[in-house]
Specification:
Blueprint: H1 3-6, H2 32-35, E1 40-42, E2 60-63, E3 66-69, H3 73-81
Parallel strand pairs: 1-3
Antiparallel strand pairs: 2-3
């Protein structure tokens, strides 16, 4: 066996106790794209639930790093006027504090 063969890492992928020892170049640092996207675009109207194919001239809202498109100005206005809290009051849990209901 030559010196080069002795210094070469051999990966036994079919071994039951295989542990990868060499990280790939792309895995050397954590990806920011997965956890902190720069810009998110949604093309599904949140009021009608329909997908919008042609975004040209469609009304939209920019909220932080999210761009939300709407089918019409009417659905955009409905979304803006929607109350932030749940419209139907939920019952209190009389049996215990912090317990999940259901």
């Amino acid at each position: 066996m030559t010196q080069q063969e002795q210094d070469t890492t051999v990966h036994a992928y079919n071994s039951l106790d295989y542990v990868a020892t060499d990280a790939l170049e792309r895995d050397q640092r954590q990806s920011r794209r997965i956890h902190e996207p720069e810009q998110m675009i949604t093309t599904i109207d949140p009021i009608t639930g329909r997908d919008i194919d042609d975004l040209e001239g469609r009304p939209y809202i920019v909220d932080g790093n999210v761009v939300m498109y709407f089918e019409s100005e009417d659905t955009r206005r409905q979304y803006i006027e929607m109350p932030m809290d749940h419209p139907v009051p939920l019952p209190d849990n009389p049996y215990g504090e912090g317990e999940a209901e259901g």
